Amino acid sequence: MIEKLQHRYALSERGAKDLVQGVIACTVQNIAFMFPVSLLYFFVGDLLDGGIHGSRIAFYVVGALFCLALIYGITYWQYNTTFLATYVETGTRRITLAEKLRKIPLSFFGKKDLADLTSTIMADCTALETAFSHFIPPFAGSLISTVLIAASLFFFDWRMAAASLWVLPVAYAIVGLSAKVQQKLSDKSMDAKMACADGIQECIESVQDLKANNAEADYLVGLYDKIDAVEQQAVKCEFGTAVFVTSANMILKLGIATTALAGASLLLKGSLDVLTFFLFLLVVSRLYDPMQAALQNLAAIISIRTNVGRMNEILDHPVQDGREELTNRDYDIKFDHVTFSYNKKENVLKDLSFTAKQGEVTAFVGPSGSGKTTVSRLAARFWDPDAGKITVGGMDIAKIEPETLLSLYSIVFQDVTLFNSSIMENIRLGRKDATDEEVLEAARLANCDAFAEKLPKGYDTEIGENGSQLSGGERQRISIARAFLKNAPIILLDEATASLDVENETMIQTALSRLIRDKTVIVIAHRMRTVAGADKIIVLSEGQMAEEGTAEELLKQDGIYAEMVRLQNQSQGWTIV
Ligand SMILES: Nc1ncnc2c1ncn2[C@@H]1O[C@H](COP(=O)(O)OP(=O)(O)OP(=O)(O)O)[C@@H](O)[C@H]1O
């Protein structure tokens, strides 16, 4: 049962056990609230028998105090098992999701956008937190306690029990029937919320481009439509809940009326005593309260299936795993008849074979979209090929645990990701245990001194979210410094110096040439000047190798590479008039 609960509600084992305890606590709490009713039953019985005297007074005083203590104790227990346990579980759930995301192949992120994933970790977890503390245990507890109390009523008088309890199956049936409709409404509401969150995020991220293109007003019209859609779906959802919940509540209320009618008629016939009639009136006035309270939250209870579904999509997604020991004999990277597509439709790389040798620089050039960046992504196992094999020193990288494999790589991408901390800490990301001196040395090699020293706190200056306070070239130099610091045996440089001016690029190229000695280097660049000194240049065209050789050999071939060089030389003479 625990395992089923774990999957049904995306819970940890501890969380599933806490949920069971929470339901038990709520059930016991509802039953405990019946104790004062029993006391009142005896009290009225004594009154009808001629009054309360002597030891009976003490009995009622002790009984009342006992009821108070019992309800206080059980409520305290119920609070701990539902509320406190839920907060712990929410933390565990967020960490589990984040850990899982770390291991999921990047292809998953292509299908999901950031707003969606952030919302799963934050908003969905919060929705479940509320549901597991406020709604689900009381709802399940009210179902169980109502059935238990109802069953015990049959011992007193089955006719009266039937008159009071017929409403329960009818109310349950209405709730059950509503589940499908509610689920659909809740799914639609979630879709509208996601589209809205997406729109807001996109708007914030692209505010500069929107302003530059004078497109703010048009964009905001679309965004307002998305916000309206959220409101409309929320109203529909609430309306759907109201219809079913109000119907179920009205049916439950009818139970009080039929109990009174049946009791009155049996009393008149003389086949029911006043005390039993009184007991039933008392019990039915309390019996449905927990259920009615729980029904108010029916929409939230049903909609958590949507939240859980979104979490399970992450939790059940296959991970990229593999062995943790490295068995490579050297650091040659070999692509052996590799075919790959991002969307399983159009192949981006087609039967590509090459070897990037250790101690050599292998450069990739080619038209935009020809697959250069994809080669570097596959080489680092960000994605796995659809066919063929990629090896490092003879070791099939598809069988190596991705984080272990990445310990062999220093990677510099054109799109640098920086964190909202100091320059020092951003560079230290290359090697966590590096000393301050080592970080500063790497920074110096990447020519970071030139800008860091001008900042108010030097290398300790906070650089804002994703380095927003730095220029493109400065951000790229931090990324290069990370690679210097990591000093891994394989280096992937994807447009690593594209944002640098000529002076900086020359300086960093010199430092890079020291870094790359004896290493396997793959360089991707648009500037032919950047790759001219490479040991081997591979020209990609539509995912296939079109040419291969040194710059000199390729110029002689007078093919794509020679044409690209010619065009770039011409473009240097261009002016905008
Ligand atoms: N994450 C992705 N999901 C789907 N398609 C992608 C993805 N990344 C790249 N592509 C597609 O794969 C093809 C090759 O892209 P890639 O980035 O490897 O080319 P490139 O040669 O590096 O281009 P550029 O020189 O413009 O950077 C392109 O058609 C591109 O649209």
From TrEMBL:
This protein's UniProt keywords: ATP-binding, Membrane, Nucleotide-binding, Transmembrane, Transmembrane helix
Localization (cell): Cell membrane
Domain of life per record: Bacteria
Matches recorded under InterPro entries: AAA+_ATPase, ABC1_TM_dom, ABC1_TM_sf, ABC_transporter-like_ATP-bd, ABC_transporter-like_CS, P-loop_NTPase, Type_1_exporter
GO terms under cellular component: plasma membrane
Gene3D superfamilies noted in UniProt: ABC transporter type 1, transmembrane domain, P-loop containing nucleotide triphosphate hydrolases
Residue ranges occupied by any ABC transporter domain in the UniProt entry: 333-567
Domain ABC transmembrane type-1 positions: 22-303
Spans through the membrane: 20-45, 57-79, 135-156, 163-181, 260-284
Protein name from the UniProt record: ABC transporter ATP-binding protein
